[in-house]
Design goal:
single chain; 10 helices; about 70% helix
Length: about 200
Amino acid sequence: MSRGFNEYEKQFITNSLIEQGKILFSKFGFQKTSILEITKNVGIAPGTFYKFFNSKEDLYFVILEMEEEKIKEQCANVNIFKENQPKKAIKSILQQMINTIETNPLIRELYFGSNMEALLKKLSPELLEKHFKNDSNSLLSLIEKWNIEGITLEENPEVIAGVLRSLFVLTLHQKEIGAAVYRETIELFIDLIVDGIIQEE
C-alpha cells in the first residue's frame, strides 16, 4: 500500500506536472502527449496522476488558464496615455493580445483538429462557467482601469467585455474567415471596436 503525500510533496508534484505538461504539450502537441510521458518525467506512477488532475484535459486547461493570466497581466500594465494617444494604445494592446494568442504554442493547440471539442467534452460545466466568469471579470477590471484613467466609454462595460471576448473567439476561426483576409479582418474589427466604444480624444 503506497503512502500518502504530505502538503509539500503535493504542491511539488502539482507544480512538476504543470511544468512538464507545458514542456511536452508545447513540443509534441496535446494529442501526442500522454499521461505516461508526463508522469515519467515527473517521476511518479501514471495512476498517481489522477490524485492531482482528473484528466489530461484538466491539466491542459489549468496550464491554459495560467498562460491567459500572463497575457492579461501584461496588458493591464500598459500605460495607455504614455504617448497621449489612448485609442492607438488600446488598439495596440488588443493586437498584442491577438498576436500572443496566435503564437503561444499552448494556446495554438486549440486550433488543431478536435482539440477544442475534446477539451470541452472532458471539462465539467461548473469549471467552464467559472472560467468564463473569470474571463469576464478580468476584462471588466481592465475596462474599469481605462475608465478610471480617463477613458470615456460609449457603452456599458459588460457589453464591451462581451465584444472583446467575441474578438478573441475569432482567432479560433481563421479557416472559416479565410486565410487570405483573416489578418485584415482582425485589424478592422479592432479599429471598429475601439472607435465604437471610446469617445473621441
